[in-house]
Each structure stands twice: as C-alpha cells, then as structure tokens.
Amino acid sequence: MSLHQFLLEPITCHAWNRDRTQIAISPNNHEVHIYQKSGNQWVKSHELKEHNGHITGIDWAPKSDRIVTCGADRNAYVWSLKDGVWKPTLVILRINRAATFVKWSPLENKFAVGSGARLISVCYFESDNDWWVSKHIKKPIRSTVLSLDWHPNNVLLAAGSCDFKCRVFSAYIKEVEEKPGPTPWGSKMPFGAVLAEFGGAGGGGWVHSVSFSSSGNRLAWVSHDSTVTVVDGTKGSTPSQLKTEFLPLLSVLFISENSVVAAGHDCCPMLFRCDDGGSLTFVSKLDLPKASITRNISAMERFRNMDKRATTEDRNTALETLHQNSITQVSIYEGDQRDCRKFCTTGIDGAMTIWDFKVTDTHRHTETHTETHTETHTETHTETHTETHTHTRRHTRRHTHTHGDTHTHTETHSWSGSLISCHHIGIFLFFLK
Amino acid sequence: MAKNTLSSRFRKLDIDEFDENKFVDDHDEAVDNQGPDGAEIDNLIRQGDMMTAFHIALRNPPVITKNPAIKERALAIVLRVLTSFKSSDIEPAVKSLDRSGVDLLMKYIYRGFEKPSDNSSAILLQWHEKAFAVGGLGSIVRVLTARKTV
C-alpha cells in the first residue's frame, strides 16, 4: 500500500494508461495533468488544456492509447498522442448541461458520456466525415446521470442517476458493430432500450456509482442512502441490498466475480462479498488504523507545529485512515476485473493510494514477525462450507473462524535527527472458496 | 414608481409546480398502513409489557400516505411507548430489532426531536444513543434521504 500526495487540490477523477506508468488526473480545475512514473516519484509530463469548465471525467483507452475527457463546459474531447503532444478533437455531445462522467467501451470504438441534461450521449467515430457523432439515450431518465459502466459485450451500458435508479440500457450502434448475442439481461437490444431498471420506489438515494462484474452477469451500485446493492442477471431480477452503517459510498468496483470494493465519505475502502446465491455481506474495512505509538515530540517538531498551527501541542487532527478526505474514485491498478491484485483510490485530499489485495486459497501461513492483529469484521455472516485449516500465529488469541483475516505489520524507521515516523503496510489475505 | 410593482400576488405562486421537467416520484399503489393500534398499545403499557408494545408500535408504519393526520397519530403512539420505557430496558429493545427496524426507529426518534416536550428529549437522546450504536451513521443518513417518511 503506498500513498502519493499529488497536490493539496482534490483529485476530481483519474485514469491510468495500459502499463500503469502514467496517470492522468484533474486537480479540480479545467486541466488534465499527466504524470509519468520515474522511480518512486511522479513527474508531470503533460498538461491538457482545452476545456473551459471543470473536468468531470477522464478515461484512458488502454489499447488505442486515447484519452477522452468531459467537463462542466458541456464538451468532451478525445485526445491522441502525436509527436509527443496530446492533440484534442472536439466531440459534439449536443447537451445543454454539464457532462458528469465518461467511459470508453471495452472495444474502444465508442464511449458514453453521462450528463446533467438527463441523458446519456453515446459517441462513435464516423470515418466518412472524420468526426465523432453522438446518439442520445433519453427515456426514461428523469435526472442527472452520475455514473456509467459498460458490459463486457460492448453493447450494454449501466447508468446510475439522481432519480434514485440504476438502469441497464442498450447502446448498440449498428454503424460500428455487429448485432450482439442474447445475454442474461435480455436478447432484444435496439439502441436506447431499457433492459432493466432497479431502485427508486420511494426509497433509496442518488446512485453514485455502478459496476459490472467481469462476466457481465452481476451489477453492483452504491447509493447515497448508505447502501450497496448487487443484482445477478442470471438469477432473476431481485437485487440484494445491504444497508451499511457507514457514510454514503461514492465509488464501487468488482475486483473478482465475488468481491466488491467500495469507498466513499468514510475515507476508507471497504470489501463486500457476494456469494453464489447472490446475497451481499460486508467483509471488512481495508484501511486499518495505525497501531498507536507513543511519540516523543522533538524540538524540531515543536517549532514546526508552532509555525504551522500556532500551537506546541501534539493535538492530532488527522484522520486515522490513509486518506484524509472522501475517496471519490476506485480503479484497478494491477490485474483485471476477474482477479485484481492492486487497486487505486483517489480523493478530495489530493492523494492517490495503491492498495494490495490478495485472494489466496492456501490456508496455512506462518507469520515470522510480530504483528498487531485487529479483527475488523463482525461475525454475522453465515458460512455454509467447512474448511480445515491451521493458522500459526505468534499471539495469544486462537480462533478458528473461516473467513477473512486482516493483519497489520508495523515497521518503524528513523532518519534525519529525531523524527520518528511509522509506515504500515497491510497485506490482506482472504480465503475465498 | 410603475404601477406593475404594486401587486405581489405573483409571490403566492409556486413556480416549481409549473416546471414541465418536475420530478414526480413513483406513485406507490399499495394500500398504506394505518399505523399502530392505539388501544392495544395502551393496554400493553398498562400491563407493563413494554417490549410487545414496542414491537407493535413499530409495525405498520404509515410511510406511504400523505395524510398528515395518520402520521401524527402514529407518531404520538410511538412516542408514548418510547417515553414510557425505563432507561435500562432501552438497549435490549433496540437489540431485538433487525436492520430495517432500527432504521424505522431512527425515523421516529428524529420526528420526536422535532417537537420536544417536557421530558421527551432526554429519553429520546438515550434511544438515539442506543440506536446509533447498532445502526451507525448509515441509519441516520437513511433518515435524511428517505422519501417515504413517518
């Protein structure tokens, strides 16, 4: 797990290139900054300045290496790298409100833009006229579209919007693709057809984020009423909703067919598990508070505190989580949606953190260094399978529960004078069978 | 001064009603609940069976109806049950509820906060503390975002 603080401005949105050596972020203004990884540092390599309003969405197509950005100026641009410079191409979206979200389709021949104009603009490249054309999906969206996700078949599009509903649309464009085969969500898919609609019915909140699983059979979304919902298209259309006791989550992502990671106003990514029956359970928070260390404040720190905060006390106002403000986006860093090994979060605190995630089937592990073990999940889920496994751990508590364990390892380094700082690296081992 | 600034009749118009894009919530056709039965609750309180009174009071919440009279009546009954609880009994009562029950209880607690009476605030704060321990911030967020309110 590593945190990198870009700037103090919030990171509105981010996108990675294919080999994760470059990241495009928007520091809450009209520009996109592209940072290149060099060693352990991130160096700014490009600034994309074309938008007249705040950037609200960035997506980087991994194979064709094109970036699409959308902003509050009701425009979207497709950027291509030519001779080391990113050149923009305007896309006429024909919307009269701000764009809120943009995503390339899996085959990268089209992209979808959500907007405050209560519609989705699906754009594809028309080679005859050499420009991008947009088609609108309007009905039955009643309010701002907040989030989109494409189904792996390149045709279906899930949209979460402020009218409290999550819908699955067909974005089939006959000019650029073949007719798709039938899916669990439906078989007739003319452009703009609603294949499924969930939520609303007098309850619920704005749907902040939606995510298809890698097979496309499952759809997860998070809503402003602090709930996470998953529906399995192959098992009928009753969604399984989990009412959490946390603040609302803002971003959700499938990191394996059975696991969902979501993060939001609690500044902490959380793991949920969706079992084969389709029901959703909370597993644990993935950011564990640092083990408390007694620190002696050095003289240098006292003077620094006096300078920064006009106080000499060690009154710590920092949050216990790594992120100091809400997390707005979760993305896959290493692996793919079937089996993700690392994921990345960015938030309003301007920091980007990469988290390790391991799914392992081996139940035997030995810990060779001292650790502080904290149980962060509640034992309220029912296990229907029996496993025999042994843990050997060097601490006094012994238990044989069969679900996930979280371990924190604390290391202390000291350098340059009397500063003592503490990193903690968490490796999360989950036994999923 | 021009004459057309004298009339203020336009201020009584609700301009949002005329907006053609106005969001109208899904109309729920289900017949709504009428709220708990006052007489039954009174009986149980007199007998001292607070737990049963509590569970019955939380049944049939009038969430869908727009009729304020029904909602006021249900609220009054629930608040009567909540204020007659002893402090030590609050925690087991909250523990006996499921997730949606805790959310519903939170809704009633916040409605009770709206119109404080002599000693209702103190006991409601104790209820709030116990319900918060189980439901967390999420239950309060669901009170704020709910469109079907008690």
What does this structure look like?
The complex is a heterodimer of chains A (433) and B (150). Chain A is mainly β. Chain A has one helix at residues 299-309; strands at residues 2-5, 13-16, 22-26, 31-38, 41-49, 55-60, 66-71, 76-82, 85-91, 99-104, 110-115, 120-126, 131-137, 145-150, 156-161, 165-170, 194-199, 207-212, 218-223, 227-232, 240-243, 249-254, 259-264, 270-274, 280-285, 327-335, 340-347, 351-356, 358-360, 365-366, 372-373, 391-392, 405-415, 419-431. In chain A, a hairpin with a 5-residue loop joins strand 6 and strand 7. Chain B starts with 37 loop residues before the first helix and ends in a 5-residue tail after the last helix. With 150 residues, chain B is mainly α. In chain B, helix 1 runs antiparallel to helix 2. Chain B has one domain: Actin-related protein 2/3 complex subunit 5 (Serine Threonine Protein Phosphatase 5, Tetratricopeptide repeat, Alpha Horseshoe), CATH 1.25.40.190. The longest helix of chain B is centred in the C-terminal third of the chain and has 26 residues, at 120-145. The interface between A and B is medium-sized, with 20 and 22 residues.
